[in-house]
Amino acid sequence: MKETQEQKRRRLLELAKASVANTYSTGEHSLVQAINTYNELDKVKNLIHEKLEEWYGIYFPELRSGSMASYAKFVMEFGKEKKSADKDGISVIFGAKEGERVFEQAQKSIGRDPSEGEYAMLRMLAKQEEDIEHVQKDLDAFIKESCNERIPNLAYLVDYRIAAELLAKAGSLSKLALMPASTIQLLGAEKALFKHIKFGKKPPKYGILFKMPEITNGKRESRGRIARLYATKISIAARADAFTRRFIAKELKEDINRRLKEIDSRKGRR
Amino acid sequence: MKETQEQKRRRLLELAKASVANTYSTGEHSLVQAINTYNELDKVKNLIHEKLEEWYGIYFPELRSGSMASYAKFVMEFGKEKKSADKDGISVIFGAKEGERVFEQAQKSIGRDPSEGEYAMLRMLAKQEEDIEHVQKDLDAFIKESCNERIPNLAYLVDYRIAAELLAKAGSLSKLALMPASTIQLLGAEKALFKHIKFGKKPPKYGILFKMPEITNGKRESRGRIARLYATKISIAARADAFTRRFIAKELKEDINRRLKEIDSRKGRR
């Protein structure tokens, strides 16, 4: 029996649906979502903290803190009556040296203390910031586990966070695996590359890979070479993760370390 | 005894500090901070929700919801196993009609269910969105109370949220009180005003005041006139709140209502 036009349409629709479902079923998409969400929560935390610091600045304008987390903690613990905060408690938050300074500032502050109602709002805001921080910690643990499971070679070769960012930028593991090393090297440097092509600025040497300590701490003139070296090995590792599923990252890493020494000594001879 | 240069310097420094402290002590600054924070949290909620919908979209791509809150609630309650969600439970979230549709979609969805670990992350994200919503509710209550206490005339004349936004835009109550009505009318329309001056676009008729139902629902040709009427009375109310502290908003409102009728009938005669 020949299938009718309607039957054919339905069959093809089912096939298309199955293919979409299949694409999304690998779990690597969750990893991409997780790292994107993590980065977005950085923005969220900054927005909330800005408001907190602006608002609590009315009551304690002298307080400056290098770390957002300790600022928020101070508001939660001592924001109601900053002058009655004990030195030890403050030092737990800021460390001994900075704690001393904050204590002095609290004693001499020109700001009044917030009312009951005002403080309730400030505390809530600080708490919210802390909650976001906790969510990020859980996400980070999820990302780590997920990387070790799904892209073990990449996660071994570079830090799992960098591996996840590469994956997110590429869009999917198979895309990453099929990219030439030169593209991988510049993932995340799209803007700089654009400026190079359009305005003739200096071409970028690395994108996401710049977050690697091996590159950041390398000699300036070797950085491009090191980035290229990593990109080549990342490309091989991605193929292993995507297709063969064999663990070869150990050898790749040894290879990298050997080459790093070569690069280092070659530079020395000049 | 004549004061030395150093003593004079100190005395003036103390005076300056006291004046700054005094400026910040009125509590109206907290109100400004509260409304600004409220608006910023709208942004924050949107950012989080975007990520949630993008991520959960992997598992239930068919789900579309008009309300962010009900989407988040669905994820929290039924996100783990959407097919086993009961129709009644879904209807509680979405209402009977939309609930029916979502139930059908869940049954036929092409998405797989999230793993234990993936679901934990999604739930956390949805919870975070709900928490922000709660913070906003508390802030709103704070804003309402604070408005009734500090700017009773303004809060009576227009909605307390609009009163607070006017205050925030002006920067402080005394600034608002000293503004001409025409400036108040255009508070919040700075961009449009700029376009008018610079590019010769049509001049704006209202800024924040456009959020008032009396204006939004007014006849198109009367809106500017109504906005001007309100701006004039707001200016008087702001002066009462800032300087005399007498409650005169009731008479102002009666005045407005009388004038609104006039405007309405005048238009009718044309």
Provide a descriptive summary of the structure in words.
Chain A is mainly alpha-helical and 270 residues long. Chain A folds into 2 domains: 47-136, Helix Hairpins (Orthogonal Bundle); 151-270, Serum Albumin, Chain A, Domain 1. Helix content of chain A is 75%, strand content 0%. The longest helix of chain A has 35 residues, at 116-150. Chain A is extended. Chain A starts with a helix and ends with a helix. At the A-B interface, helix 1, helix 2 and helix 6 of A face helix 1, helix 2 and helix 6 of B.
Describe the protein's topology.
The structure is a homodimer of 270-residue chains.
Chain A: H1 5-24, H2 28-56, H3 68-78, H4 87-94, H5 96-108, H6 116-150, H7 152-157, H8 160-170, H9 173-178, H10 181-186, H11 190-199, H12 213-216, H13 223-244, H14 249-269
Helix pairs in contact in A: 2-3, 2-6, 2-8, 3-6, 4-5, 6-8, 13-14
Please supply descriptive tags for the structure shown above.
Serum Albumin, Chain A, Domain 1; 75% helix; mainly alpha; homodimer; extended; 14 helices; Helix Hairpins; 270 residues; 2 domains
